[in-house]
Automatic annotation (TrEMBL):
This is SDR family NAD(P)-dependent oxidoreductase. SMART domains: PKS_KR. SUPFAM superfamilies: NAD(P)-binding Rossmann-fold domains. Pfam families: adh_short. Belongs to the short-chain dehydrogenases/reductases (SDR) family. Residues 12-208 form the Ketoreductase domain. It comes from Aquincola agrisoli. Gene3D superfamilies: NAD(P)-binding Rossmann-like Domain. InterPro entries: KR_dom, NAD(P)-bd_dom_sf, Peroxisomal_Beta-Oxidation, Sc_DH/Rdtase_CS, SDR_fam.
């Protein structure tokens, strides 16, 4: 951990879920470096949800404290209403308040859609989408009483653009976008803001995505390790939790390598009007020829981001 300290988040208390590794860990460490008191939440499970060994949250806390920061570990699940509330109460009881939540916890159950089972679908949606809801809702009461707060949710290009074998993950991540947008509107009167980040960073989730031969995948991943690191995502998450971002809400950001970018959000792009109304037949005659050039192609993330991250 870089021992250079700043005060962008001085006196703020931040919860980072899924902070035992990858993007969540990098965010937690940078939060502490910027002066925040951090609740490092991680259930300590593998990507598929099985319990692993030593607590990764405790290891991150030790790293933060060794660099002079303040942090406490938490091993509760975000997937359940009661345990999510206990995470927030842990922040309040330990540090006296809660100023921001970064929803980064997640698991994967990748499967081609015709083989995707209901248990695999629900497990992923429960951690990602329900987890974001549970944590945000638990914090909302405190934010309202305090007159302010910040939420940052990790979405994904798997949903925003497209991915193969990840219908459950994509559905959850797009649900998070709608959740964040609604929170930003409902809670604006209380000074609460809510934003999304679609991160590009080498992590266990990136490593697990199928589609390449083992040799090609290793070459691809080694390049990703060097050019898209979790610590390159962390500054954007920290900024969105800081007072410097007090007027930024309801947005979807991306971070890839040394790039940051803003995503557009769905708006009508073409219209057709027929004075006498439409029938299935007239739609068949006119809609496709008129709109074909405006249809969004079935692209994947790597098709859209055609340039290398640097």
């Amino acid at each position: 951990m870089d021992n250079t300290r700043n005060d962008l988040l001085a006196d703020k208390v931040v919860i980072v879920t899924g902070a035992g590794g990858g993007v969540g860990k990098a965010v937690a460490i940078e939060m502490a470096r910027q002066g925040a008191k951090v609740v490092v939440n991680d259930l300590g499970v593998s990507l598929t949800g099985e319990k692993e060994g030593d607590s990764p949250a405790e290891q991150v806390v030790a790293e933060i404290r060794a660099a002079g920061g303040q942090a406490v570990a938490d091993g509760e699940s975000v997937a359940e209403w009661a345990s999510a509330h206990r995470i927030v109460e842990r922040a309040v009881s330990t540090f006296g308040r809660i100023d921001a939540v970064v929803n980064s916890a997640g698991i994967l159950r990748d499967a081609i859609f015709h083989k995707l089972g209901p248990d695999e679908f629900e497990a992923v949606v429960r951690v990602h989408l329900f987890g974001a809801f549970h944590m945000s809702r638990a914090a909302a009461t405190h934010f309202r009483e305090q007159g302010g707060g910040a939420l940052v949710h990790m979405t994904s290009t798997a949903g925003l653009i497209g991915s193969i074998g990840q219908a459950n993950y994509a559905a959850a991540k797009m649900g998070i976008v709608g959740l964040s947008r609604s929170i930003s509107m409902d809670m604006a009167r209380f000074g609460v803001r809510s934003n999304c980040i679609a991160p590009h960073a080498f992590s266990r989730m990136i490593e697990s995505v199928p589609g390449l031969s083992p040799e090609d995948q290793e070459r691809y991943l080694e390049k990703r390790r060097q050019t898209t690191r979790p610590d390159q995502i962390a500054p954007l998450a920290v900024f969105l939790c800081a007072d410097a971002a007090k007027d930024v809400t309801g947005q979807i950001f991306g971070a890839r390598g040394n790039e940051v970018y803003l995503y557009n959000q769905p708006r009508p792009v073409r219209t057709l009007h027929r004075a006498e109304g439409w029938t299935p037949g007239t739609l068949a005659q006119q809609l496709v020829p008129a709109w074909r050039s405006s249809f969004t192609p079935a692209e994947r993330t790597r098709d859209v981001f055609g340039w290398e991250a640097i």
